[in-house]
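Notes from hallway chat w/ T.B., transcribed later so I don't forget. T.B. wanted the structure written out for a chain they're using in a teaching module, and asked if we could keep both sequence and structure tokens in one place. Agreed to drop them here.
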Amino acid sequence: MKNVRSFLRFHTLRMLERIFRPDTLYQLLFPLASLRAALKKCPATSPLPAVIGPGPVIPVTRQSRRSYYLNNTLGAFPNRLASPEWRDRCSFSGLEALQEVRRRRQPAVIVVGHFGAVYLLRLWLQAAGIPAATLVTGTATQRDYLNRLKDGAALFPEIPCVFYPNQLRAVKKFLADGNVLIIAMDKPTGRQVEIAVDGTTHFQMATGAARLAARHGARLFPCNIIDEGRWRFRVVLGRPVPEEFLAGTPDLSAVASHVLGEMLPVFRAHPEQCTPMIFDSFRPVDQTTGSRKI
């Protein structure tokens, strides 16, 4: 029964997208997303790290949940996002550097945090002509039916939409072909590196993206995607990590400092789009011991 509902939802959204222009479709789906958000219990608020900005907490509001539900519907028609009526709804900053890497047939790894509409980044990169996939946790057997339907509508059907940790041989070939892989930096699992932000805060980053980029000679780009509302987005690609940080034995502390330096201004400008996973990457330092508070 769940698969039947997923099938009907997927194909209904695809049909509606063909009938209505984006702004009209947004208005049509707005009440349904609002109702769904109203019925969903919001979790506890998360503390705002002082290094990001002033303010006691950033709550997960019904408004932010409604935006997530509305944004997530775009996954039903990723092949349509490159069309003129959709393509100008996402702007890019720093895309030229990534395109130059692509022209040189060099692979690229994009490191992201759980910020803004990060779940749409792969779709908008593909809409801009960048063959991108995402490395996620879990296994292929855990990918549900609805996501498999969405994968089948991707703009680059010849490449996988996602890779899993047990598919590193396939990841190697994917990168060797000059493609782009997206990896999260704020996952609490796997190897981590920790740096001091200032005298009061430490930042912890998962090192998987850096180690993979170093191993396969890929350029490493920090990136955020900002939700500007009403199905308009802005992708901010930061300056790539200097290649010397990844040469030989990677200098993971230097990589983390560079990535944070590129991302922190975006976090500070839009703290409401940060998630608890990002907040948990920052920890206050115990002034008596100099270590992080747990």
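Follow-up for T.B.: DSSP finds eleven helices and twelve strands in the chain. Might be a good example for the class.
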